[in-house]
Each structure stands twice: as C-alpha cells, then as structure tokens.
Amino acid sequence: MSSIAIVYHSGYGHTAVLAQSVALGAARVAGTEVHLVPVEEAEAKAAILDGADAIVFGSPTYMGSASARFHEFMEATSKTWYGRGWKDKLAAGFTVSASQSGDKLNTLIQLAVFAAQHGMVWVGNDLLPGNNNSKGSVEDLNRLGSFLGAMAQANADEGPDVAPPHSDRKTAERLGERVAEATARWVRGK
Ligand SMILES: Cc1cc2nc3c(=O)[nH]c(=O)nc-3n(C[C@H](O)[C@H](O)[C@H](O)COP(=O)(O)O)c2cc1C
C-alpha cells in the first residue's frame, strides 16, 4: 500500500479541478491511497502529509509565481525541512493560469526547488508534447508542452465547470497515475 497526498491552493476553483484529476489518476493504480488536502487544511492535516510516500503540490500561477497562499504554506514547512521530515518522499507539481504561457514554468520550478529543499525526489511528466504540429489540436494531452509537471490553461471568463478543458484534466490525471506508479516502485524498493 502506498499513500499519496495532493496539497493545493485554488482561489477560484481551477486548481482544485486539477487536484481532483491528479487524484483520479493516482487512484487508478492498485494499492494507492489518495488524500486531497486543500492548503487551508495543511496544518490540521500535517500527519497526512508527513505520513505520505509522495506529495503532489498544486498552485495557480499568480503574477508569474505560485500564489501567496501557497508560498505561505511552503514557508510554514520550515520546521519539517529542518528535521528532514519529507526527505526521500516522491514529489510532483501542477499549475494553471489564464494565458497559454502565463509564466507557468516559473511556478513549476518553484515547486520543484521547494521539493528539492526538502530532499524529495521529483517526478516529471512523461507525456510527449501535444498541439505542436500541423495535425495537432487543443484536444491533445500535454497540449502546453510541459515536462516538469502538469500545466493547464483556464480561460479567464470561464468557471471550473468548463475550464481548464478536458485535455488538461487528462494530462493532470496522467501525472497522478505516473506518480502513483513511481511511488509503488519506490515503496517496494525501500
Ligand atoms: C492575483 C492573480 C494573478 C494572476 N496572475 C496570472 C499570471 O501571471 N499569468 C496568467 O496567465 N494568469 C494569471 N492569473 C489568472 C489565474 O492564473 C487563473 O485564473 C487560474 O485559473 C486561477 O486558478 P484558481 O481558480 O485555482 O485560483 C492571475 C489571477 C490572479 C487572481
């Protein structure tokens, strides 16, 4: 049995939708227990994060960065960092913004550096980039072409009922599944 926690912030619901997609993908892997932890509950649910074999981080991109609320969470983990509490857990990340780029890569880099500071082992996205040739479409998985983690784009005038689109949700699902597969191997090898 392996345990995966997904800790995320979502101001307007788009990142929450992706968190659910990551959870759905992870739960497809037999023997995986999945915990969704909104960042507002991270302190109360610290035992879930500390007990997980993998933690997936999710934040919207605000001003080209992880959100202030997510940064607050990151800084609040400094005691855990000092005690090496998350060392050798697997980690991964996802983000969403309104623009096609929106500087989302910077957010994923922040999440990966955060994981590295904790001594965690980062799992990237294994999907080839989509929508990058004449036969491509926005329906392609990994349509935004990210390897570091799952990226999604949500139109600024659409709610989480429709945005981000199906392809981005499926991309996040695959990241969750990949993290769960990697975690199962990681836990077996311990
Ligand atoms: C304060 C703020 C800053 C934002 N900055 C960016 C940005 O830098 N790039 C971008 O493309 N979208 C930006 N957006 C749009 C959000 O990334 C987008 O609406 C996203 O889907 C929000 O996710 P959430 O619903 O989980 O909060 C910003 C939105 C807010 C509220």
How would you describe this structure in keywords?
seven-stranded mixed sheet; alpha/beta; binds flavin mononucleotide; Rossmann fold; 190 residues; single chain
The coarse silhouette is globular
Bound molecules: flavin mononucleotide
Low-confidence stretches: none
Helical percent range?
25-40%
User: What's the CATH topology label?
Assistant: Rossmann fold
Text of the CATH class? Alpha Beta
Mean pLDDT: 98
The CATH fourth-level homologous superfamily: Flavodoxin domain
Describe the structure.
Residues 4-152 form the Flavodoxin-like domain. There is one protein chain. By secondary structure, the chain is an alpha/beta fold. It has a single domain, classed as Rossmann fold, CATH 3.40.50. The chain has six helices and seven strands. It has helices spanning 14-27, 46-51, 68-76, 78-82, 104-117, 166-188, and strands at residues 2-8, 32-38, 54-62, 65-66, 90-97, 121-122, 150-153. Strands 1, 2, 3, 4, 5, 6 and 7 form a seven-stranded mixed β-sheet that branches. Strand 1, helix 1 (14-27) and strand 2 (32-38) form a beta-alpha-beta unit. Helix 1 packs across helix 6. The longest helix is centred in the last third of the chain and has 23 residues, at 166-188. The protein is globular and about 50 Å long. The mean pLDDT is 98. Bound molecules: flavin mononucleotide.
Quick structural overview:
Helices cover about 35% and strands about 20% of the residues.
SSE blueprint:
Layout: E1 2-8, H1 14-27, E2 32-38, H2 46-51, E3 54-62, E4 65-66, H3 68-76, H4 78-82, E5 90-97, H5 104-117, E6 121-122, E7 150-153, H6 166-188
Parallel strand pairs: 1-2, 1-3, 3-5, 5-6, 5-7
Antiparallel strand pairs: 3-4
Helix pairs in contact: 1-6
Bound molecules: flavin mononucleotide.
